[in-house]
Amino acid sequence: MSLAVVNETTMTTFVEDRKAFENCVEECFEMLDVDGDRVLSRSELREGFCKIMSLGHESREEEKIDHLFNTIFNRFDEDRNGSIDPQEFRCLIRELMFAMGRGFGSSPVLVVLEIDSLLMKAVEHEFGRI
């Protein structure tokens, strides 16, 4: 884990750098796609999602977690095949990164980040490391 200062600009500049963002999203997708079938099942997405989004590992109510993933699949599984393909995953992550940026706003916020998270990638991008 690492500490970093982020704000909305950290997120938006990362997402708007299409090449860097898509490379990082593809890397995360491959990390989550445990069986290598180029789609993410609910269980694959659920297993790795908290890590790549730096959401922590504290226990949560199963009902709330189920609701979150039902919402994700209802919104982003465009072909309704019960899995998330790379394009759907890219759209999901793009929307989440912009939402987090809006949540941070323009004031700097100190956050604890997982080393392999997309938030860490955004920070590294901001400092020219990726």
UniProtKB/TrEMBL annotation:
CDD domains linked to this entry: EFh
Ranges of residues in domain EF-hand: 20-55, 64-99
Coiled coil, from the record: none
SUPFAM superfamilies, alphabetized: EF-hand
GO MF annotation: an example: calcium ion binding
Transmembrane residue ranges: none
Alphabetically ordered keywords of this record: Calcium
PANTHER family for this protein: CALCIUM-BINDING EF HAND FAMILY PROTEIN, CALCIUM-BINDING EF-HAND FAMILY PROTEIN-RELATED
Name of the molecule in the record: CALCIUM-BINDING EF-HAND FAMILY PROTEIN-RELATED
Organism: Salix viminalis (Common osier)
